[in-house]
Each structure stands twice: as C-alpha cells, then as structure tokens.
Amino acid sequence: MPSLATLRVFLDSLEEGVLFLDAGRRVLEINSAAARMIGRDDPRLVEQLCPTLFAGTDCARECETRGQCSLTPAKGEDGKIQDIVLKAPDGRDVPLRMWAMLLPPNASGLYCAIILRDRSRELELEAEVRDRWQLGGLTGRSRAMQDFYQKVLRVAASEANVLITGESGVGKELVARALHDNSSRANGPYVAVHCAALPENLQESELFGHAKGAFSGATGARLGRFEAANGGTLLLDEIGEISLATQTRLLRVLQEREIVRVGENHPRKVDVRVVAATHRDLAAMVGRGEFREDLYYRLRVLPLHVPALRERREDIPLLASTLLGELAERYRRPDLRLSAEAIVAMEAYTWPGNVRQLFNTLEHAVVHSDGPTILPRHLLPELAGPVMPTPGPAPQLTRYYTTRATADEERAQIERVLDEAGGNKAEAARRLGMSRTTLWKRLNRGLEHS
User: Fold this and answer.
1) CATH label of the domain that carries residue 112
2) Best exposed site among 28, 287, 343, 345 by fewest CB in 10 Å?
C-alpha cells in the first residue's frame, strides 16, 4: 500500500487536475495541476475553496436536485464529460473539461474525485484549424473546397460581376457573403435580395425604388435595393426568377451604373458590385428564350460553381461537427457529440438537399436524442440504415435476370444492376433476388451457377 506522500507525488506529477470533494462539494484535497488551472498556485489554499467553485455547472445542479453527480457514469455507461469555464482570481476565463468518479465510502469523508483538463491550447488549435478550413461561413478541408476558397479569394479582389451557381442548399448565400467580406467593399453595405420572393409587379420597385404616387399605394418615395447597397455589394439570389421586363431594366443598370426609380425620369448614379446566384441552368433558359442572353453574359463575368456535398464527402465529419456545435449552443446542450456510426451513415448518404439538408438532419437528431451522443437511430429514416422488416408475407422481389441467360448475359445484367445500386452489393442482391453470398460468388468465380 503506497504511503500518502507517495500518492501526493504521483498526483502532482499528473497533467490533469484532480480535486477530491466531500458530499457537500467542499474541496478536501487538490493536486498541483488543478491548483494552477483554477488560479490557486498554493495547494494550501484548498480550505478557501467552497461549493461555489462549480456553481452553475450541470454537475452541481444534479448534486443539488438529486443528490448525485451527473458526471459519474452508471454501470455499463460510457464516461461523461462536461466543458466548463471557471473564473480565475485575476478575472480571466479558464476553459476546462471535467469528468468525475465516485469513491467508495471511507473514514476520510471523500465522496468523489473531479478530474480537470485545461482546454486553452485545444481551443487555440481549433481556432487555427477553423481559420484554415473555413472561409466566412463556408467549411471544408477537401481538395475541392480548398481550391474553391482560392477561387473565391481571387474573385473577391475584383470589382467585376459574379454569377454563383450550384444546387439548392450548397451555401451560395455564404459564398456571396464571403466575397463581400474579403473585398475592398467589406466596410460598405451588404444587401441580399431573394428574387423568387418578389411578386412580378413589385420587382422593379423593390430593386430600383419608386417615387411618391408612382402607383396605387405608393404613399411616399422609397429607396430601392440598388441604392441601399451603394458603395457595397448586392446579392441577387435566384436571379433566374425575375421577369423578362425586369431583366431588361437590370441590364441597363449594369451597363450604365445608374438607376431610375419607378415614377421618375432622372437617373441616379450607383456604385454597386452585383453578385447573382441561382440553382437553375441559365444557359438552358437562354436557349428557351426565358433569360436574356446579353444579361447572362453581363452577370457571368466571373463564374463560381459551388461543389455539391456528395462531391466532397470527406468534409461531412468536419461540417457535421461544426453544425452540431451551433445546434448545441442553440439548444443549450454543450455535451452533444456524434458517434462514429452516425458519421459513417452520413458519409454514405447522397444529400440531395446538400448542407441545408445536413443541418436539418442534425437538428432532427438533436431533438430526438436521449443523451449526449447522436446515434444512427436519431437520424432521419433515410440515413439511419435499413429498417428491419415487420412480420408478414415475404416481399416479392423484382428479378432483373433469368437463370436461362448465358454467363456473359448474366454478368452484364448483374454489373448493370450493381452500377444502378451505386456499387452497393447488398442493394444489388436485393434487386436481383439473390443472396449477397450468391452475388459475391458470381462476381468472383466466373458467375458459375451455385
């Protein structure tokens, strides 16, 4: 049995801080690392510490309301952690990660041990990583996103018009904001207009403003979005939704750098950089006569195409972690984290709704989770994996092949179905009406009939 002196030397050699508390959360013993973390360099000051040291933490509230520590896991549970910020005597905030363990009853009155880890350097590194892997509200460390960041920064240095394209939910608005924030106009106004939300009869008034009495209900003069963005950046989101008449006036504004309010005759000069965004194929719309060709090329001086989420799957863990951090703050659940299984499920999904769908999926998981860890069962059904069949008649499987086919024909059929299933052998086997073992044999043994 080691002596108390030996135990003290051992505890003081640890990088983690250790505090021993009694049932009233009074600190009875503290090692040197813990003393440094909380700003009490002299362990002899331990008697001055009281329950207020951890006041306001989930751990303390659990002790107060239920008489037990929320951080000590029950049998079979994973260890629980909590990130806290303590105020040092000099007024600085000390970010710490804490966990706890209950101690067996003993004569010394010790109830539990609190273990602390200083997160200051960890948070500094996270900030460095965020700076490297983020551009404004955009997040990604994949080669596709790193290349995209470089394009955004090059385009931001220009004054030319920009056309941002990409699927719904990829974050085109975030790209526009990053362009503004990294441009020489960053100190000027940033005005965003969602063109799809503007009724056709109000598009010109919203964009260019109107004079008093210009139309019924115009009880006063109104500043348009172009004038509001003077000296800054104007985002025309979903530009493909504006009418041909508005397109004609917009083209003139881009050419002359001046607007004419509805109901007025004299022009007003504006200094605005226009950034347009759309998920539609404007080139195809030009071919159908739905979008002016001259306006298309006027807007598309500097094109930027935002990669879809399925094209940068390696970004999903980082992106999901970032979004979960936002949700944890919103729902006041700082201990939320993603399980490895949930991340695998998210990486395997195609994300037709892109980053917006990912955020909605995580919010669904946060609402339905019953603990700090997001598991696959907390995700939306389409991500959570195959559903176990309910008892009943066996389903009729669609068979894509016949045993009367030749070996070459059968191979071609199986390869076609495997391609349709995205390489998923389990799904291909289901569509073919065979077991995965049979599929594997036919793919690896010359497709001989088993």
Assistant:
1) 3.30.450.20
2) 287
